[in-house]
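step: validate -> pass
step: tokenize input -> pass
step: predict -> running
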Amino acid sequence: MNSIRTVAVTKALSNYLGLRHSAKEFFIYVDSLPEPEVHVDFDKAVFISRSFAHEYIKQEQNSPKRIKKVNVPINIEKMFDVVKNSKKENKLDLTSIKAISI
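step: predict -> pass
step: emit ->
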């Protein structure tokens, strides 16, 4: 048995990767495969939404498989980079604010 499986994300889903739920469903399939390593082929992917990219990264980090993205178009790679480099901002730190009477 080969220890690496290649899965074309566009064949499993679509050329337009837009829904967070689709990323979850894709990883249910990927995680069910018997191989310990999976190459996810993004060939022919046209679009990826921020929400799909975020969920994909989250699922990839939680997967028991070794996942490698292959044939990733530049626009798709850029969206993954945007999501990886974004941080949740603290909107307001209320611990240092004191109430005053007027």
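step: describe -> The chain has a mean pLDDT of 91.
step: cleanup -> pass
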